[in-house]
């Protein structure tokens, strides 16, 4: 679990980088990882919440902007099933990997990705957390 010292380390690392809109998938993954670390540190040390809030807010904004821009063509046209299939293929993940990470069994993942099963709210939550995307991508 992150400590206040971890939060300080995270902030120091972040201060070495100019915060700017994300330009590619690598920067997106770095921002998501940093955001995850900051949120863990915030939960671990609630007293650090106020000092972390501006950085957390900026990272969330940049992540949302990148996703909106990068995936807008998919969001307009893709069904939840197509989105899941795309994310599985794009990320190089197997259904087995995603099943382990989400608790959704492989058979159900196959049915979801092929459009033979509708997405439950719980599936949407688990998949969006696993792929680190907005839940709306899995909603019709």
UniProtKB/TrEMBL annotation:
PROSITE patterns linked to this entry: HTH_CROC1 (PS50943)
Domain HTH cro/C1-type: 94-138
Signal peptide positions (record): none
Record-linked Pfam families: HTH_3
Top-rank taxon, per record: Bacteria
Protein name, as recorded: HTH cro/C1-type domain-containing protein
